[in-house]
Design brief:
alpha+beta; 19 strands
């Protein structure tokens, strides 16, 4: 059979067996992966030298917190006055108990390596470990009251009378180091949320929680590098303008280097540098990733060239 794609207004065709265009070559139900032979060979080299993230101790990514009514829970935290914080949202102002406000992270605000400071906050109506509070304190109750009917109508509530409930709160657990990235971009942008950082990623983000901080640093360096970007862009759901969707299933397939301890020694220091204000260059990240996978840069050059996109949004 003849496989082909339109690439930058040019038709590209090549002969291919059916198994050669499946993402998983031995699974007849696997989706197609239309890559020219040299690009597919480079893609498969990374597969052969790794194991999927979902099969590692870090496991699959989780979606960020879901509100079901962003306007109710999202505020700008302005000034601290004793035990309360003055807040604003769309021209409305009020006060909410400081203990019920946490920093908020939207996908479009995720930057590589670390998260920039912002006034964006979420009304956090849950106690540990993510269970909704039995009763809201007065400030939060007054703030959320105008949305009560709308919040009661959310399908995820499943009949609960705690209409202030948030959903999918696993990604907000700050007892472990978290790697977080935006679900949408030209290349992945991954950042570190250290233990104790109460930032709450929204459901426009994905999160991997790590027991070992060096695992988090290593994964972050991989995701911010051009090799992982090229591999993921080959399978990620495309959008207009060269953008892609970095969904949980997509990133969970990313092969991690089989010699993970060696990969940590090579890659984790790059994230440490970045967090100190000295981020590595794209060339450094590529060289380090190739060392971690034990491949030559020439081995993966066709994949990087085929999937090349600008390195910043």
């Amino acid at each position: 059979m003849i496989a082909g794609v339109r690439r930058r207004s040019v038709e590209v065709e090549w002969p291919a067996a059916p198994s050669a265009i499946r993402l998983l070559r031995h699974d007849p139900a696997s989706p197609w992966l239309l890559l020219p032979p040299d690009v597919r060979a480079a893609f498969d080299r990374i597969v052969a030298r790794g194991a999927a993230l979902s099969e590692s101790p870090m496991g699959r990514a989780t979606l960020g917190v879901k509100c079901g009514c962003n306007d109710a829970f999202m505020v700008d935290a302005m000034d601290e006055v004793g035990d309360v914080m003055s807040v604003e949202h769309r021209g409305r102002s009020g006060t909410i108990e400081r203990s019920l406000l946490r920093p908020l992270l939207r996908g479009d605000a995720v930057a590589a390596w670390s998260i920039p400071r912002s006034r964006s906050a979420i009304v956090w109506t849950h106690g540990a470990p993510g269970v909704p509070l039995p009763v809201l304190p007065s400030g939060a109750a007054k703030w959320l009251a105008p949305w009560r009917r709308q919040l009661l109508g959310r399908s995820d509530l499943h009949g609960s009378t705690r209409w202030w409930t948030l959903f999918r709160t696993e990604g907000a657990d700050h007892t472990r180091t978290r790697v977080v990235w935006s679900d949408f971009g030209r290349v992945p942008r991954a950042a570190i949320l250290p233990v104790g950082d109460q930032t709450v990623p929204l459901n426009s983000c994905y999160v991997v929680s790590c027991d070992d901080v060096r695992d988090a640093f290593t994964l972050t360096a991989l995701l911010n590098g051009p090799l992982a970007a090229a591999w993921l862009n080959a399978i990620a759901e495309p959008a207009r303008g060269g953008w892609h969707r970095y969904l949980a299933w997509t990133v969970s397939l990313l092969p991690l280097p089989r010699d993970w301890e060696r990969a940590r020694e090579i890659l984790a220091p790059l994230t440490e540098r970045a967090l100190l204000g000295k981020p590595p260059s794209t060339a450094e990240l590529l060289t380090a990733a190739c060392r971690a996978y034990r491949v030559r840069e020439s081995d993966v050059a066709p994949l990087i060239a085929w999937c090349h996109t600008p390195t910043t949004d």
